[in-house]
Amino acid sequence: MAKKDILAVLDLAMAAVKDAALADCLRRVDDAQRAYLIAEADKNREKSKAVIKAIVRIDIECRKLILTYDSIKNDLGEDGQEIMDELMGMLEKERTRLVEEKKSIS
To answer: Dihedral sign, CA of 41, 44, 48, 49?
Structure first.
């Protein structure tokens, strides 16, 4: 075999080794990216779950407050009614904020 042929075979062998190393590196990067995306999705799912639970708690407390308010509103003075209205407004604002937070979780 001529020196030129040996060099050509060596060049092919080196190219094959480089291609295999590059393919392995790309596979590892792809695996790492997939693991990151899965972890990010899990984190966002947990955030969403916590926000949804908070929204449900606010909804439950609003319903309780409305029932209580309906049963005592005749006994409350004007100041008491204003306080109840403020409280309901605050709960509604917090619920709206949480809904927006839920929408922003990607």
So the answer is: positive
**pLDDT above 70: residue 38:** yes
SS (HEC) of the chain: CCHHHHHHHHHHHHHHHHHHHHHHHHHHHHHHHHHHHHHHHHHHHHHHHHHHHHHHHHHHHHHHHHHHHHHHCCCCCHHHHHHHHHHHHHHHHHHHHHHHHHHHCC
Are 101 and 51 spatial neighbours (Cβ–Cβ below 8 Å)?
yes
- How far is residue 17 CA from its own chain's centroid? 41
pTM of the full predicted structure? 0.67
CB atoms within 10 A of CB 52: 13
Give pLDDT tens digits for 70-83: 888 778 788 888 88
Nearest Cα to Cα of residue 96 among 57, 47, 44, 55: 55
